[in-house]
Amino acid sequence: MKFHFDDVAFSFQALRTAGHAAYAGADLGEVLVTCRNIPDGDEQAWYREWTALAERLHHIGDEALAAGHRVSAREALLRASNYYRTADFFRVENRDADTESDRLARCSRQTFARAAELFDVPALRLEIPYEDTTLPGYLFRADGAGDTARRLPTVIHHGGYDSTLEELYFMVAGGALRRGYHVLAFEGPGQQSVRREQGLVFRPDWEHVVGPVVDHALTRPEVDPDRLVLWGTSFGGLLAARAAAFEHRLAACVLHNGIYDFYELPLRAIPPHLGEWVAEGRDDVAGPALDVGMVQSTRVRWFLRHGMWVFGAKTPPEALRACAPYNLDGAAERVTCPTLVLDAENDVICHGEARRVHDALRCPKEFTVFTDAEGAGEHCQEGAALRFHQRTFDWLDERLSLA
C-alpha cells in the first residue's frame, strides 16, 4: 500500500503514524499536511516537519491543561508523543552521540506520561525488577480497576525492533481497554529507553525478560493470574514465541506477526553472495558492499544503522551477524498455551515467516492472514487497527471465555 511516498520506508512509517489515529495518536489531516511538506526520501525534512508538528501539539496540550481542558490536553499530548517518535525514527546515524535524538525521545516519553495521567483511569508507571536493574512499563487499567475483588484478564505486551513503550498504547492497549482487558506494557533490553538509558542490548533468551514481568504482574491485585496473555509485536512476535516456550503461566499468546528466523529477513534484501561474505566474516568486502546498499536504500540503511545500536555492533556486517541467534529452532515446539499467529498479505520481507511459525507449533493454534483487500495487508496491520483488534480480541475473548 503506497501512502503518499514512493520511498517504501517513508510510506510505511507515515502509514504507521497515521494508523495510530484509531486511538488518538494522530489526526489524519495533520499527517497529510506534514507529509506534503516532505520531499520523498529526504530524512532531514522528515525530522524537521514532524518535529515542528510535535512541538505545536505539545504547546497546544500545555495551554489546554493550564486552562483546565483535560480532554483537549490529553488528546494533544498523545498526538505530540507519537509525532516526536516519528520525527526521531530515521535519526540512526549515531544515536549514542545524537543529543537531538535523545531530546525527541525524551519529549515523546514526557508528553505521553502527562497524557496518561489524564486518562479516565490513569495509567500507572511501573519499574519492573529485572536482574540488577528495572525495566520501564505501564499498567493500563480497564474500567473497574479499583475493584480488586474483580480481577481482569491482562495482556502483557512488548514491541520489537524499534517500537517505543509509549507507542504500545496505540498498538494494542487502546483496543484492549475497550474490551475489559488490562495491559501491562513494557520495554526490555535493546528497546528504546532501556537501550538509551541503561545501554542494554537485545538478548535472544527472551524468557529471562518475560519471566520477571510475569512475576511482577502476579503481584498486582487487579490481575487475574489465570488469564495472562503474552503479546509480541513485529520482531516481538519472535521474542514472545521464544519466551512462551519456557514461560508456562500464560493462558494464551499472540504473535503479531509471526517471525521464525530474524536473520533470514535482512538476507532477503541483499544479494546472496553478500550474505555469504557476511556469514564468513569477510568484512573487508562485505562492509563496502553494504555501504553501497545503505546509500541506495532508505530501508536497508535504517535497518543496519538501527541494528548496530540495538545489538551493540560496531559495523553493519556485525549487526547482520548479531541477528543470527534470533530464531525458534528448538523452541516453537515447546510452546504449550493456545497461540494465535498473525500474518499480513503485503509483508514481503516477512513473507512465509508466520506460516513457518504456525507449522512448527505443537500447541493449540490458529493462523490468521490479513489481506490487502480489507486494507490490513501491511506489516503488523499498520493502518487497520480496528480490523486487526476485532479479529484478535475476538479470538482471545473466546479462548478466555469472555465472549
Can you give a write-up of this model?
This protein has an eight-stranded mixed β-sheet, with helices on both faces. It has 403 residues and is an alpha/beta fold. It has helices at residues 8-19, 28-36, 43-66, 70-88, 99-116, 167-178, 192-198, 207-217, 235-244, 264-268, 272-280, 283-296, 298-311, 316-322, 353-360, 385-399, and strands at 124-130, 133-140, 152-158, 182-186, 223-233, 252-256, 339-344, 365-370. α9 (235-244) links the parallel β5 (223-233) and β6 (252-256). The chain is built from 16 helices and eight strands. The relative contact order is 0.10. The longest helix has 24 residues, at 43-66. α3 runs antiparallel to α4 (70-88) and α12 packs across α13. The chain folds into three domains: 8-114, acylaminoacyl peptidase (de novo design (two linked rop proteins), Up-down Bundle); 122-262 and 326-399, Alpha/Beta hydrolase fold, catalytic domain (Rossmann fold); 264-322, no CATH class. The protein is globular. InterPro entries: AB_hydrolase_fold, FrsA-like, FrsA_esterase.
Strand order of the largest sheet: 1-2-4-3-5-6-7-8
Q: Overall 3D geometry?
A: globular
**Briefly, what CATH class of the largest domain?**
Alpha Beta
CATH superfamily of the largest domain: Alpha/Beta hydrolase fold, catalytic domain
Helical segment tally?
A: 16
Order of helices and strands: HHHHHEEEHEHHEHEHHHHHEHEH
Give keywords.
eight-stranded mixed beta sheet; Rossmann fold; de novo design (two linked rop proteins); alpha/beta; globular; 3 domains; 403 residues; 8 strands
